[in-house]
């Protein structure tokens, strides 16, 4: 019966925010990140899907740039891209427009590092071998 105990709702804990020092626009900033749930990830993926038809065949593709942007917005807690005050300070409306505006002030490598942190926080940085080893321990 102990196997069942591992899967009861109270055995799952809420993830704690993760702080990282990130270079943005040439300045070091402390940012906070919180992983999203698999259900939220599914919602984001569905919102980024595009369906096209080619020669009678239905093709479904995920817009990876849109997915990464939405994942970044949902994962990053500081700064809060959904903050109206922050959006106003950048002269934009909407979280995605704020991210785009901030990207104009970042070096390309800085944004790549930022995106890598978001991926890592959400567990996308682990290979299948890493997951197998983790499961063994």
Any descriptors?
137 residues; alpha+beta; 3-stranded antiparallel β-sheet; two-stranded antiparallel ribbon; 5 strands
Describe, in short, the structure shown.
With 137 residues, this protein is α+β, with helices and mostly antiparallel strands.
Please give the structural blueprint.
Layout: H1 2-5, E1 18-24, E2 27-33, H2 38-47, E3 49-54, E4 57-62, H3 64-75, E5 76-78, H4 84-89, H5 95-103, H6 108-121, H7 128-136
Antiparallel strand pairs: 1-2, 2-5, 3-4
The class by helix and strand makeup works out as: alpha+beta
Tally of helical runs: 7
Largest pleated sheet: 3 strands, antiparallel
Helix content: 40-55%
Total strand segments: 5
How far the N terminus sits from the C terminus, by CA atoms, comes to 21 Å
Low-confidence stretches: none
Oligomer status? single chain
Shape: globular
Radius of gyration: 18 Å
| Order of the strands making up the biggest sheet | 1-2-5
Average of per-residue pLDDT values: 87
Strand content: 15-25%
SSE string, helix = H, strand = E? HEEHEEHEHHHH
Protein described:
- This protein is α+β, with helices and mostly antiparallel strands and 137 residues long.
- 47% of the residues lie in helices and 21% in strands.
- The chain contains seven helices and five strands, in the order H-E-E-H-E-E-H-E-H-H-H-H.
- It has helices at 2-5, 38-47, 64-75, 84-89, 95-103, 108-121, 128-136; strands spanning 18-24, 27-33, 49-54, 57-62, 76-78.
- The strands form two sheets. Strands 1-2-5 form a three-stranded antiparallel beta sheet.
- Strand 3 (49-54) and strand 4 form a beta hairpin.
- It is globular and about 50 Å long.
- The model has no long low-confidence stretch (mean pLDDT 87).
């Amino acid at each position: 019966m102990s196997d069942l105990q591992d899967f009861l709702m109270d055995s799952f804990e809420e993830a704690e925010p993760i702080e990282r020092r990130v270079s943005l626009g040439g300045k070091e900033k402390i940012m906070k990140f919180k992983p999203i749930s698999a259900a939220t990830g599914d919602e984001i993926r569905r919102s980024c899907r595009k369906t096209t038809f080619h020669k009678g065949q239905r093709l479904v593709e995920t817009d990876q740039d849109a997915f990464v942007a939405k994942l970044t917005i949902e994962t990053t807690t500081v700064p809060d891209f959904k903050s109206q005050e922050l959006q106003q300070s950048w002269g934009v409306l909407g979280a995605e427009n704020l991210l785009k505006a901030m990207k104009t002030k970042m070096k390309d490598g800085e944004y790549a590092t930022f995106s890598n942190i978001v991926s890592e926080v959400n567990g996308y940085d682990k290979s299948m071998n890493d997951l197998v080893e983790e499961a063994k321990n």
